[in-house]
Amino acid sequence: MSGVWVFNKNGVMRLVENPYNNSGGDWSESSSSGGSQQQRMRRKILVHLPTSEVVSSYKSLERILKGLGWERYYNGDNADHLLQFHMRTSIDLISLPRDFSKFNSIHMYDIVVKNPNVFHVRDM
Questions:
Q1: pLDDT tens, 71-104?
Q2: Within a 10 A sphere around the Cβ of 67, how many other Cβ atoms?
Q3: Taking the CA of residue 75 as centre, how many other CA atoms within 13 Å lie in the half-sphere pointing to its CB?
């Protein structure tokens, strides 16, 4: 079961499955935050806080990660599909889709959690 829990106007919580494909307009009516569907689906960007640089390619991300002590990890079953980075001093592994166009907020937040106070995810 996947979806988003939302509050109706009467305060009852319910599960809306796949809310961004809801054609009936029900999602926006029950959303407590208001605004259009397009506003809630804003694109995210990953920002390197010390330089305020927006990460716009894997080349720039790899340069930043290497400066933080991360190394490319070339072994593994998914080497054809993923770019992976590891740190020798931890068990953390960052796995990213090889195609940068598939790099999304889930991957961004993974980087943020593993590099506290270095990256930030913002709405575009």
A1: 998 876 766 789 999 999 999 999 999 999 999 9
A2: 11
A3: 1
Of 104, 97, 100, which Cα lies nearest the Cα of 44? 104
E strand map for 56-118? 71-73, 82-86, 93-97
Tokens of residue 31, six digits: 């959303």
| DSSP-assigned letters across all residues of 22-55 | -TTSHHHHH-SS-S-HHHHTPPEEEEETTTTEE-
| pLDDT exceeds 90 at position 11 | no
**101-121 confidence digits (pLDDT tens):** 999 999 999 999 999 999 999
Residue pair 82/95 in contact (Cβ under 8 Å)? The answer is yes
CA dihedral 28, 7, 18, 114 (to 10 degrees): 110
| Pairwise CA distance, residues 73 & 79, whole Å | 9
Q: 93 has which bridge partners?
A: 86
pLDDT, position 22:
46
Task: For residue 78, give the 3-state DSSP assignment.
Answer: coil
